[in-house]
Amino acid sequence: MPQLKKKWERSANLDETEPLPKEAKCEKLEEKETPAGMEGSSGRGQTSKKPSSTKKRSGTQVNPESYSHWLLKSEPESRLENGVDMKFSIEDLKAQPNQTACWDGVRNYQARNFLRAMRIGQKAFFYHSNCKEPGIAGIVKIVKEAYVDHTQFEKSNPHYDASSSQEKPKWSMVDVQFVRQLRRFIPLAELKVYFWEHQAAEGALKNMTLFTRQRLSVQPLTKEEYEFVLSVEDKKPNSV
């Protein structure tokens, strides 16, 4: 598969510019885990340890492997970092051979652990981030489970990590394949309205990670969250 010049963890995390709940503002690469909480070897094929046990989600302990749906952020607009264009939109994915690409460049421990929890066939929303109008553009599926992200070893790559070694690589990636674009783009602003409504009424999006831990570039979704978002793609934007 050709190397793709894209994304993100240090930049696409900064896309939510509208006011958010107070707890959402503490996600500044908070996953600086202590060595004991970090995985000690490669992603896929790692047998000695699994991703750090559980994380809190709005006060509830959750296991990353309990999720079967995801949200992946990428930048749809050109932005140079160390001379590399980080742009990778859903249209760019569609243009790849077999409409498939590696999801590389994640440099956040919790986001990495979510990548490692993904399984072949699971669906994810492709989210346009760090742009004029962020939001959900389409759906992809996981076609290859977590394996070593080669970009961590490439000194010319914006995601090079000098502290990672071939013997004990820190970072993983997965392969995703385009499934379809949503029948309409669902912007962050619209999702936020649902989020506030659902917080008050105990709705499906009441704990959505996009708002409670919004800086993560790889996020888990419950089945209810995923299905609710799909249910609104045929609604008119002004019907919110």
UniProtKB/TrEMBL annotation:
The keyword Nucleus applies. The keyword Nucleus applies. It is found in: Nucleus. It comes from the Eukaryota. Residues 1-74 are annotated as: Disordered. GO terms for cellular component: nucleus. SUPFAM superfamilies: PUA domain-like. InterPro entries: 5hmC_binding (IPR052181), EVE_domain (IPR002740), PUA-like_sf (IPR015947), THYN1-like_EVE (IPR047197). Residues 9-34 have a biased composition (Basic and acidic residues). Residues 69-231 form the EVE domain. Keywords: Nucleus, Phosphoprotein. Specifically binds 5-hydroxymethylcytosine (5hmC), suggesting that it acts as a specific reader of 5hmC. This is Thymocyte nuclear protein 1.
